[in-house]
Amino acid sequence: MAAEQAFDLVLLDLGLPGKNGWETFINLTRETPSLAVIIITARSNQRAIAANLAADALFEKPLDFPTLLRTVGKLLFKPASKLS
Question: What is the pLDDT of residues 9-66, one digit of tens each?
């Protein structure tokens, strides 16, 4: 889908059926480096991987929806460079 249309932001759950979530993240950001991606996972110990791959944000389940919504807002209205 991402190859066929532009997205402003992707909420990516690492638990994809039949796919590796991190490989999907790498493919998405390789094709569109400016794409904002928020990783969502029930897996523990994923923060170091997210930081190493420069994910915009990582949320562990159960989700804190107010914080998620604030993060979405920041990413949608950020300057062209990635947030630090």
Answer: 999 999 989 999 999 999 999 999 989 999 999 999 999 999 999 999 999 999 999 9
Task: Tell me how far apart the alpha carbons of residues 32 and 4 are, in angstroms, rounded to a whole number.
Answer: 12
pTM (2 d.p.): 0.86
Beta-strand ranges (E) seen in 1-84 are 9-13, 36-41, 57-60
* CA 71 to chain centroid: 11
The Cα-based distances of 48 to 16, 44, 55, 57, 73 in angstroms read 20, 10, 10, 12, 24
The first and second tokens of residue 60, run together, are: 């562990």
Angle 75-79-80 from CA coordinates, rounded to 5°: 95
**Pair of tokens at residue 28:** 């998405």
Query: How far is it, in rounded angstroms, from Cα 67 to Cα 63?
Result: 9
